[in-house]
């Protein structure tokens, strides 16, 4: 291919990416202007929190527990070399509240809740349910998408906090019960080193941002998908890929902004 | 599932999230060590504060009696001005001395406050005159090297 053709391809890709970014931004604006439904019909949002949050609880708790176990084992292995195994609590708590809690929860959230949102919206579109709503003068963005968006944004920080808590308990179990670190030193080192605002609050802010990003991408892919079985399956795949990449990219940016 | 059941489950879910946040703040974090006790501020000047940070603890006999409220640089005396926030329930004699210490070999730096013997107590806005700067490892090593070179005389 000639150099000119290559440059042309690059330009076309950039332009289409910008178009998608603009569409997502407009979509977010449309959703936000329709969030008033939470006041009018709160039950719709409660149902979505139930569907998105409660049903994700099992995978979040189990993953958090095992991440905590592994952090305890691996952290002990490294810290033991420097005779600082008492700092295990600090290591587990800082890694979970600052990074792993929000990020791993968001990745699991994209896989567990994001895909189901995309598939649901996509199938509604394929079955022309959304079009039927519009015919009946019901705004599908307001009736179907906005409650799901709010549900995801509410559920995600709660799930991340639960993940961190369960993970710390897992680290405690491995460190104190299995390995035999002093339980007082474990907790006091943790309390000395973890700051409520610098670490815990910033972790919560991260999880809120990830919740917005993942839910937005999932709904957008469902809303924009081609209304065929193949289109829905592709949109679901893209939700996981784009959602995970967005989480990792945003995490880097937020970490650089918050902790430097 | 009926609406009431959904409500109960969502309520439990949100409650669990709140419990997790409280756990992170109190059990893992240092919210429990935040004191809302009234403080009075005292200033001290140091030649070198090393790695002292705002909110570092101020300890007397190893017990936390306050926290560092502010650190500034005074460009007339070229010294660091550290403002202490001491809890109102603790009073110290006016001739108390402050030194910057390190907990453990590589731990965080804190201020050690040693009580003096004067009858007058420190009040808000007072200055602490007797201060000892942080020990900088490089200076310590160079002093040590200089000292050994001097005691051994000229190189053999």
Protein model, in words:
The complex is a heterodimer of chains A (260) and B (156). With 260 residues, chain A is mainly α. Helices cover 87% and strands 0% of the residues of chain A. Chain A has helices at 3-33, 37-40, 42-52, 57-81, 88-126, 129-135, 140-179, 183-193, 196-224, 229-258. In chain A, α9 runs antiparallel to α10 (229-258). The longest helix of chain A has 40 residues, at 140-179. Chain A is globular and about 65 Å long. Chain A starts with a helix and ends with a helix. By secondary structure, chain B is α/β, with parallel strands linked by helices. Helix content of chain B is 26%, strand content 32%. Chain B has two helices and eight strands. Chain B has helices at 3-28, 137-151; strands at residues 39-46, 57-60, 63-74, 79-87, 97-102, 109-114, 127-128, 130-132. In chain B, 22% of the residues are buried. The model of chain B has no long low-confidence stretch (mean pLDDT 84). The chains are: A mainly alpha (260), B alpha/beta (156). Chains A and B meet through α3, α7, α8 and α9 of A and α1 of B.
How far is it from the N-terminal to the C-terminal residue of chain A, by CA? 44 Å
How would you sum up the major sheet of chain A? none
The total beta strand count of chain A reads: 0
* Assembly state (oligomeric): heterodimer
Largest sheet of chain B: 8 strands, mixed
**What percent of residues of chain B adopt helix (DSSP H or I)?**
25-40%
Q: Average the pLDDT over all residues of chain B and give the rounded result.
A: 84
Overall mean pLDDT of chain A stands at 92
Provide the β-strand percentage band of chain A: under 5%
Question: Helices and strands of chain A: which structural class?
Answer: mainly alpha
Model regions low in confidence, pLDDT < 50 over at least 5 residues of chain B:
none
Strand portion of chain B: 25-35%
| Helix and strand sequence of chain A | HHHHHHHHHH
Measured on Cα atoms, how large is the radius of gyration of chain A? 22 Å
Uncertain runs of chain A with pLDDT below 50, 5 residues or more?
none
Order of helices and strands of chain B: HEEEEEEEEH
Largest interface pair: A-B, 31 and 23 residues
So what's the overall shape of chain B? elongated
What structural class do helix, strand and pairing data of chain B support? alpha/beta
What's the total number of strands of chain B? 8
Shape of chain A: globular
């Amino acid at each position: 291919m000639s150099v000119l053709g290559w440059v042309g391809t690059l330009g076309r890709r950039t332009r289409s990416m910008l178009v998608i970014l603009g569409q997502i931004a407009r979509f977010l604006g449309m959703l936000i202007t329709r969030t008033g439904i939470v006041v009018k019909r709160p039950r719709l949002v409660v149902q979505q929190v139930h569907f998105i949050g409660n049903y994700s609880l099992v995978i979040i708790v189990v993953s958090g527990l095992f991440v905590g176990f592994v952090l305890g084992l691996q952290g002990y292995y490294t810290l033991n070399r420097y005779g600082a195994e008492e700092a295990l609590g600090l290591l587990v708590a800082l890694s979970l509240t600052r990074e792993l809690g929000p990020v791993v929860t968001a990745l699991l959230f994209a896989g567990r809740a994001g895909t189901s949102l995309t598939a649901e919206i996509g199938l509604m579109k394929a079955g022309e349910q959304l079009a039927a709503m519009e015919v009946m003068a019901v705004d599908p963005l307001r009736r179907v998408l906005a409650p799901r968006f709010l549900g995801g944004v509410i559920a995600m920080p709660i799930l991340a906090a639960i993940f961190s808590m369960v993970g710390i308990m897992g680290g405690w179990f491995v460190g104190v019960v299995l390995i035999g670190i002093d339980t007082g030193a474990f907790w006091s080192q943790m309390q000395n080193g973890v700051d409520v605002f610098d670490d815990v609050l910033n972790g919560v802010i991260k999880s809120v941002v990830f919740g917005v990003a993942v839910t937005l991408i999932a709904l957008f892919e469902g809303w924009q998908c081609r209304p065929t079985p193949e289109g829905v399956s592709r949109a679901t795949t893209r939700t996981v890929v784009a959602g995970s990449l967005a989480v990792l990219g945003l995490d880097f940016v937020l970490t650089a902004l918050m902790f430097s | 599932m009926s609406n009431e059941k959904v409500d109960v489950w969502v309520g439990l879910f949100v409650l669990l999230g709140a419990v997790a946040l409280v756990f992170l703040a109190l059990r893992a974090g240092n919210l429990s060590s935040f004191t809302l006790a009234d403080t009075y501020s005292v200033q001290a000047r140091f030649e070198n504060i090393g790695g002292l940070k705002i909110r570092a603890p101020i300890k007397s006999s190893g017990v936390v009696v306050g926290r560092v409220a502010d650190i500034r640089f005074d460009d007339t005396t070229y010294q660091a001005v550290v403002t202490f926030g001491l809890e109102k329930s603790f009073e110290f004699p006016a001739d108390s001395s402050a030194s910057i210490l390190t907990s453990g070999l590589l731990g965080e730096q804190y201020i050690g406050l040693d009580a003096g013997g004067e009858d007058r107590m420190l009040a808000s806005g007072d200055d602490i005159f007797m201060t000892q700067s942080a020990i900088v490892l490089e200076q310590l090593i160079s002093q040590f090297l200089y000292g050994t070179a001097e005691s051994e005389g000229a190189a053999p």
